[in-house]
C-alpha cells in the first residue's frame, strides 16, 4: 500500500520583529525614538499562517494572507497590523473565484485554470466606465461620434483576453493610461494614494469624468501609434528573445516574435505578461511576468507539466533557445519528466562528467 501525505501550509513572513503597533511600519520611522526599537522576534507560532485548511487549497498572489485559503483564511483581527500590510489584488481574486468552485478538479482542468483568460479588473470596472460614458453622452450627444463604436466593442466583450480581441487592446491601453495616473497621484503623496488601494476593488477608484477622460486618451494614443483604435491584441503584444551578451540588443519589430494573449498581472491575468514599448517601436514586448510555470499532481506517481518563457538554452545557436516560446505564448505546457526511466527514454544525448 502506498500512502501519500500532503500537507498544505503557508507562513506569511520569516523572522518578523516585534514592533510598537502605534506606528505605521509601511513608512520610515524616527530611529531616534526609543518606541521604534524592536522588542525581539516573533516565534513561528505567532506568524500569520495557514495549515491544512478545510477549504482544501492555499493561494498566494502577493496579496493579503487573510484571503489565502477562502473560508479557512486567517483572521486579520488576530495579528498585529504590521504582520501583513498587503491588500487584495485582482489576480488573487481570480484564483479564489476559480478554486472556490464546487466539486473536484482534474489535472487537465487545473491546467486550464492556471491559464484562465478572465480579467476581473475589467469585469468589475468596465461596466462602470461604460455607465459613466452613457451618462456623459446624454449631456453631450456629440461624443457618441467619437467613442460610440469603441463603447460598443467594449460593451460586447466577455472580459477575456485573446490574441484576436480588439477589446483586449482597448482595455489594456486604458489600464496603462490609468496606471500612469495612479503613479502621478502617488508621487504627489496624496492621502491614501497607496498603489494597491488604487489598483483593486469592486468600485472604480476614479470619478466618472476621469474614467471617460482616460478612455479618450486611450483612443488618441492608439490612433497616433497605429492609425486606428481597433487593432487585434496579438498583432502588437509580442514575445521576442533578445541576446544581451557582449552588446545590448534591442527589441526589433522586423525580427521574429510571437503573439501573446496574456496581459499584465494587475488586471487579474493569472498567466501574466508584462511588456514595454520603446520609442520607434510598434509592438509591446514581454519583459516580465510568468517565467516558469508548472502544474504538478501528487499521487501514486508524480505527474507534471511545465513551460519556461523561451527555452532551456542561453545559446542563440541552440535549438532549445526559443523552442518553448510557442507553448508559452499560447499558454500551453509540455510534459515534465520526473522519473529516471522517462528522462532516459526522451534523452537526446548522454554523457558522463569528466569524459
Give the count of structural domains.
3
How would the global form be characterised? globular
Largest sheet: 4 strands, mixed
- Give the proportion of residues in helices: 25-40%
Uncertain stretches: none
Mean pLDDT, as a whole number?
Answer: 90
Q: What proportion of the residues form beta strands (DSSP E)?
A: 5-15%
Radius of gyration (Å): 24 Å
**Number of extended strands:** 9
What distance separates the N and C termini? Answer: 42 Å
Oligomer: single chain
> Strand order across the biggest sheet?
4-3-6-5
Q: How many helix segments?
A: 9
What is the H/E string?
Answer: EEHHHHHHHEEEEEEHEH
Structural class: alpha+beta
Structure, described:
A hairpin with a 5-residue loop joins strand 7 (292-297) and strand 8. The model has no long low-confidence stretch (mean pLDDT 90). It is globular, with a radius of gyration of 24 Å. It is built from nine helices and nine strands. The protein has helices at 90-99, 107-114, 120-139, 144-155, 166-187, 208-226, 233-236, 325-330, 340-345; strands at 9-11, 49-51, 237-239, 258-259, 273-276, 284-289, 292-297, 303-308, 334-335. The strands form three sheets. The protein has a four-stranded mixed β-sheet with strand order 4-3-6-5. It has a three-stranded antiparallel β-sheet with strand order 7-8-9. Strands 1-2 form a two-stranded antiparallel sheet. The protein has three domains: 9-114, Glutamine Phosphoribosylpyrophosphate, subunit 1, domain 1, CATH 3.60.20.10; 120-236; 291-355, no CATH class. With 355 residues, the chain is of the alpha+beta class.
Amino acid at each position: 500500500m502506498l500512502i501519500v501525505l500532503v500537507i498544505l501550509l503557508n507562513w506569511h513572513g520569516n523572522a518578523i520583529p516585534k514592533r510598537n503597533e502605534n506606528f505605521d511600519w509601511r513608512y520610515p520611522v524616527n530611529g531616534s525614538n526609543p518606541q521604534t526599537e524592536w522588542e525581539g522576534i516573533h516565534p513561528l507560532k505567532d506568524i500569520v499562517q495557514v495549515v491544512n485548511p478545510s477549504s482544501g487549497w492555499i493561494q498566494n498572489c502577493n496579496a493579503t494572507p487573510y484571503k489565502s485559503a477562502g473560508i479557512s483564511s486567517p483572521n486579520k483581527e488576530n495579528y498585529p497590523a504590521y504582520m501583513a500590510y498587503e491588500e487584495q489584488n485582482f489576480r488573487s481574486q481570480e484564483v479564489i473565484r476559480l478554486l472556490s468552485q464546487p466539486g473536484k478538479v482534474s489535472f487537465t482542468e487545473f491546467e486550464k485554470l492556471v491559464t484562465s483568460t478572465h480579467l476581473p479588473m475589467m469585469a468589475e470596472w468596465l461596466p462602470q466606465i461604460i455607465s459613466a460614458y452613457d451618462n456623459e453622452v446624454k449631456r453631450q450627444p456629440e461624443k457618441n461620434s467619437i467613442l460610440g463604436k469603441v463603447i460598443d466593442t467594449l460593451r460586447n466583450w466577455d472580459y477575456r483576453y485573446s490574441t484576436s480581441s480588439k477589446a483586449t487592446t482597448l482595455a489594456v491601453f486604458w489600464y496603462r493610461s490609468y496606471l500612469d495616473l495612479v503613479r502621478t497621484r502617488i508621487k504627489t503623496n496624496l492621502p491614501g494614494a497607496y498603489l494597491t488601494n488604487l489598483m483593486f476593488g469592486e468600485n472604480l477608484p476614479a470619478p466618472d469624468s476621469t474614467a471617460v477622460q482616460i478612455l479618450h486618451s486611450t483612443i488618441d494614443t492608439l490612433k497616433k501609434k497605429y492609425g486606428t483604435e481597433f487593432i487585434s491584441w496579438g498583432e502588437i503584444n509580442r514575445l521576442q528573445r533578445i541576446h544581451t551578451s557582449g552588446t545590448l540588443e534591442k527589441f526589433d519589430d522586423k525580427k521574429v516574435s510571437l503573439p501573446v494573449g496574456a496581459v499584465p498581472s494587475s488586471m487579474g491575468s493569472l498567466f501574466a505578461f508584462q511588456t514595454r514599448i520603446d520609442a520607434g517601436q510598434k509592438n509591446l514586448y514581454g519583459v516580465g511576468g510568468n517565467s516558469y510555470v508548472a502544474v504538478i499532481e501528487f499521487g501514486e506517481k508524480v505527474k507534471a507539466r511545465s513551460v519556461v518563457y523561451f527555452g532551456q538554452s542561453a545559446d542563440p545557436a541552440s535549438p532549445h533557445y526559443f523552442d518553448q516560446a510557442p507553448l508559452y505564448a499560447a499558454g500551453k505546457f509540455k510534459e515534465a519528466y520526473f522519473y529516471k526511466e522517462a528522462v532516459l527514454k526522451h534523452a537526446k544525448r548522454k554523457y558522463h562528467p569528466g569524459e
